[in-house]
Amino acid sequence: xxxxxxxxxxxxxxxxxxxxxxxxxxxxxxxxxxxxxxxxxxxxxxxxxxxxxxxxxxxxxxxxxxx
Amino acid sequence: xxxxxxxxxxxxxxxxxxxxxxxxxxxxxxxxxxxxxxxxxxxxxxxxxxxxxxxxxxxxxxxxxxxxxxxxxxxxxxxxxxxxxxxxxxxxxxxxxxxxxxxxxxxxxxxxxxxxxxxxxxxxxxxxxxxxxxxxxxxxxxxxxxxxxxxxxxxxxxxxxxxxxxxxxxxxxxxxxxxxxxxxxxxxxxxxx
Lengths: 67, 193
Prior knowledge:
The structure holds two protein chains of two kinds.
Chain A: E1 2-5, E2 8-11, E3 16-18, H1 19-25, E4 33-37, E5 40-42, E6 51-53, E7 57-62
Parallel strand pairs in A: 1-7
Antiparallel strand pairs in A: 1-2, 3-6, 4-5, 4-7
Chain B: H1 3-10, E1 14-18, H2 22-34, E2 38-42, H3 66-77, E3 82-86, H4 94-99, E4 104-107, H5 112-125, E5 130-134, E6 147-151, E7 154-158, H6 172-191
Parallel strand pairs in B: 1-2, 1-4, 2-3, 4-5, 5-7
Antiparallel strand pairs in B: 6-7
Helix pairs in contact in B: 2-3, 2-6
């Protein structure tokens, strides 16, 4: 499937992936993230359930301390 | 738009600022200077000497509450600005109460967990409200890594990379740049229509 991840096109072999699977494939190990799929916020407890399919727009924002 | 027209537009606007540290104090001062009508500020913390390397406070204010000192400093710069100050630790309940009438909310916390909390809270409970967050302000130099991007109603300012550590402290120039970028986005939003 073809999706957009953080505004960049990316191709995965599988047709459906959960957020947890994408995090693993991309080696994203950040503790604190805000994740949106097509504008909808996905809570941490839903990462293993929320599915991403062809054409989806996925935003993964890394929370960084400092201010 | 000349400055008088800008001021006429801004006088009717309300901006919420969540946190009065490096991002919040500098962003609030920038918005007060240009004449945003009402600023709603909140913080529970006390000014320490170590804050003065980046936060808009003065040495004689050490030991005072940040939220009330920031209100004083804003009024010294522009007495026309209405400032609503809340001495509270913000959480997912009081954020909704305090900031529900704002045209825009500025996230100005230091901790990643708090940034996460306000993004989720605003997205869940105030989905129409625009939120401007600061992400990645630590260190010095490297101007060109600092950027802005928009995801729906969320605006991000910062380098989105450098976390504050012992060897990478937050300092006035970079924190000030990001705080003023947040203020600049707020203006862009408020002056759009």
